[in-house]
Specification:
The protein is mostly helical. It has one domain. Helix content is 75%, strand content 2%. The chain has a two-stranded antiparallel ribbon with strand order 1-2. Strand 1 and strand 2 form a beta hairpin. The chain is globular and about 60 Å long.
Length: 259
């Protein structure tokens, strides 16, 4: 019998359903907040800056910022949902019930990360729908767009899972999303093309890993990218492998799980 057949799918479904239930109980706040944020971004960036920059690489500025808006919310929501999802059982002490149950680490990760990724993807699609109220959407490669959406959500949900295990207080849950990920996203070409930068700052921007995510996602919309799609996929896959390695290490050593 294959490993997939031997997995405790009812346990995975129970964790997933519980986490999604928590999301739906606060659906008004969870859904309304990104809609309002997207509207404000369009008012500020689309109207104020768009009146001065009519187009970027032949794409109307209001439409150009849509992938960046989605990616900004996707990254922060993936990290926040996953980190809080695993941190709260640690805080409440119910993590020991999960660890003592006949559930493998893989099944625990699938439940928590799957739920976090589902939430962030849903919010990303809501932002996409909200954007359609302001600009005529254009998606040249819809299959690739969905693929990048899934890959990014899963990768950063894993990253959030690691943060949730590392954090020893609620304030640390917001430390990385607010002070690291959000600035990197703003400086990663969310609202501009890095090709517009002077050579020195263009080279500096390539150090930012979020540049590759936004570039690949924008290519799925407009068929244009600041960096090679192959490099973008490689960087995302590398970060995914690093996150998987960290999660494996944590469960093998019990770091922050048993103390």
């Amino acid at each position: 019998m294959s490993e997939a057949m031997r997995m405790n799918w009812p346990a995975v479904r129970a964790i997933y359903t519980f986490e999604m239930g928590r999301f739906w109980r606060t659906a008004g706040q969870s859904i309304l907040a990104p809609v309002i944020s997207t509207t404000l971004y369009f008012v500020v960036f689309g109207a104020a800056i768009g009146s001065r920059v009519s187009a970027v690489d032949g794409v109307p500025y209001g439409l150009f910022i849509v992938p960046g808006l989605i990616m900004l919310s996707l990254l922060t929501q993936s990290i926040s949902n996953a980190s809080f999802g695993i941190y709260f059982p640690r805080f409440a002490g119910t993590i020991y019930e999960i660890l003592s149950a006949p559930i493998s680490p893989l099944e625990v990760v699938l439940g928590f990360v799957g739920a976090a990724a589902s939430k962030s993807i849903l919010i990303g699609l809501i932002i996409l729908a909200t954007s359609a109220l302001f600009v005529p959407l254009r998606i040249d490669h819809p299959v690739w767009m969905i693929g990048f959406l899934l890959l990014t959500a899963v990768t950063f949900s894993l990253f959030g899972f690691v943060i949730g295990l590392w954090a020893d207080g609620f304030e640390k849950l917001q430390l990385v999303p607010l002070l690291v990920v959000t600035p990197l996203t703003f400086l990663g070409g969310s609202f501009y093309a890095i090709s517009m930068l002077p050579p020195f700052w263009h080279a500096v921007s390539l150090i930012n890993p979020v540049v590759y995510l936004i570039s690949a996602f924008r290519w799925a919309f407009f068929g244009k990218a600041d960096v090679s799609i192959a490099i973008s996929l490689g960087m995302t896959a590398l970060f995914l492998v690093i996150c998987l390695g960290l999660v494996t290490y944590i469960f093998r050593t019990g770091y922050r799980l048993k103390s």
